[in-house]
Design goal:
By secondary structure, the chain is α/β, with parallel strands linked by helices. The protein is 49% helix and 15% strand. The chain folds into 2 domains: 3-288, HUPs (Rossmann fold, 3-Layer(aba) Sandwich); 336-485, Isoleucyl-tRNA Synthetase, Domain 1. Strand 12, helix 11 (262-276) and strand 13 form a beta-alpha-beta unit. Helix 2 packs across helix 3 (66-83) and helix 14 (337-367) packs across helix 16. The longest helix is centred in the C-terminal third of the chain and has 31 residues, at 337-367.
């Protein structure tokens, strides 16, 4: 049994979780369930990033202490994970305000300092509070000193901070990006950022500018830069440095992040790991953003879509299906209620739901519900190959191809006609193939639609078809007009 470790970026606890957080969780859970199905001892880390300027500012605006504020938000993140049907027995959760995490991060700082990678200097430059990011002068000028993501002016800073000597590892960081980053075009973008060499980065803030953070060991006048604190979670959650369990799971096999925070994970994080003498993650999976009707999701535009609304109205597997299959794994994707309901009714209800219902009822009618003599088909090796390459949308496309082929087989073979004409051998062979194929489809769907896979297995997984066949996806037109009423 192989150990397999997947990490997700921990979201800022300055607001309720949004659809980007849900995408991290969804992709990670798909890969986690796939690895478990392969017989591996897989572990997934999740958590919340609870320090930093924007958390402190939001708490102050709410008239709360930062700790009160993040504590109040925590149940919303827990609810999101529960609603998404994550595989909880294989998940570790970390909050960066946890005492154990803070203690371990302090030790990480000490070890980087002992390795000669931390020094003090004056930072003169720009900072984006929304991104919690120091912005180089050339990049600040290129964006006209306004953050592209948050549409707010950058702050000009002049302060004495500690620095991490990232530049020492430029060559190794380039090699990491070339070999580990998926997809390759994101790797090329990251390589372009360090074409003139990786730059040393400020890794602390003066306490008179920011109190809400982990203190720098040995210097109470400084707190750690929030990204040093946050990135360390991938190690602290598995016990680094004092608990030897971390050796079982490190290096991470897959780290999953959005494109907006790729640079931190591809440049700063490898430098930290190299300074600690640890191996680098095997793969860094970078996904895009979700737009709504072609526009960036924004409260001011009134187009924010809540993952919980989708799940509550259509079920968790409908959410998992659309965002796994209809959002490109590595690029930006688009959501509209029209597209979602077309996929729900046309693909989940018609393609899959009708197939399962038709075959189950025919098995009861033509086989007396007896499946005991039917052997299982081989697993879908192409789906596994796509998942191994992190091509999640392509993998579920492959499963759907099997569903479409099974539907076509029903239409071509016409079991009802075979029964009518007394072709019993051909009817038995046809039904045997259909049941075998549906069992294979259920296995292929397991990482993506675990609830639906289990329901299909309840119907076809034993020797007898149950008396009651559930409707997997009842048709719904909650946001679009029902075709019969147009």
């Amino acid at each position: 049994m192989k150990k397999f470790y997947i990490t997700t970026a921990i979201p800022y606890a300055n607001a309720k979780p949004h659809i980007g957080t849900a995408m991290d969780y969804l992709y990670a859970d798909i890969l986690l369930r796939y690895q478990i199905a392969q017989g591996n001892d897989a572990l997934l880390s999740v958590g919340t990033d609870e320090h930093g300027t924007k958390v402190a500012e939001k708490a102050a605006a709410n008239g709360q202490s930062p700790q009160e504020f993040v504590d109040e938000l925590q149940p919303h993140f827990e609810m999101m994970r529960q609603k998404l049907d994550l595989d909880f027995p294989h998940i570790r959760n970390v909050r960066t305000t946890d005492e154990q995490h803070a203690r371990r991060v302090e030790e990480i700082w000490r070890r980087l300092d002992q390795a000669g990678l931390i020094y003090k200097d004056t930072y003169e430059g720009w900072y984006c509070v929304g991104c919690e990011s120091f912005i180089p002068e050339n990049e600040a000028r290129a964006m006209n000193f306004i953050c592209n993501d948050h549409q707010k002016p950058l702050e000009k800073l002049s302060e004495d901070n500690y620095y991490l000597a990232v530049s020492k590892y430029t060559a190794k960081i380039r090699e990491f990006i070339k070999t580990a980053v998926k997809p390759e075009f994101r790797g090329r973008e990251l390589l372009d950022l360090i074409k003139d060499g990786a730059k040393d980065v400020s890794i602390s803030r003066p306490v008179d500018k920011l109190e809400w953070g982990i203190p720098v060991p040995g210097d109470e006048s400084q707190v750690m830069y929030v990204w040093i604190d946050a990135l360390s979670n991938y190690l602290t959650v598995i016990g680094y440095p004092e608990n030897d369990e971390y050796r079982d799971f490190w290096p991470a096999d897959i780290e999953i992040v959005g494109k907006d925070i790729a640079r931190f994970h591809a440049i700063i994080w490898p430098a930290m790991l190299l300074g600690l003498g640890l191996e680098l993650p095997r793969q860094l999976m970078i996904h895009g953003f979700i737009n709504v009707g072609g526009a960036k999701m924004s409260k001011s535009l009134g187009n924010v879509v809540s993952p919980l609304e989708i799940i509550d109205e259509y079920g968790v597997d409908a959410f998992r299906y659309y965002f796994a299959r209809h959002i490109p794994t590595f690029e930006d994707g688009d959501f509209t209620w029209e597209k979602f309901e077309a996929a729900y009714n046309g693909e989940l209800a018609n393609d899959l739901g009708n197939l399962v219902s038709r075959v189950a009822n025919m098995a009861k009618k033509y086989m007396a519900g007896d499946l005991s003599s039917i052997a299982d088909a081989n697993s879908m090796s192409t789906t596994s190959a796509y998942l191994d390459n992190l091509q999640l949308a392509t993998a579920i496309d492959d499963v759907w191809l099997q569903i479409q082929r099974a539907n076509k087989f029903v239409d071509d073979q016409k079991p009802w006609q075979l029964a009518k004409t007394g072709e019993s051998d051909q009817l038995a062979a046809t039904m045997s193939k259909l049941v075998s194929d549906i069992r294979m489809i259920a296995r292929g769907l397991l990482p993506f639609l675990p609830e639906t896979s289990a329901k299909i297995d309840e119907i076809f997984g034993s020797d007898t078809v149950p008396d009651t066949i559930p409707i997997l996806f009842p048709k719904k037109y909650l946001h679009t007009e029902e075709p019969s009423r147009k």
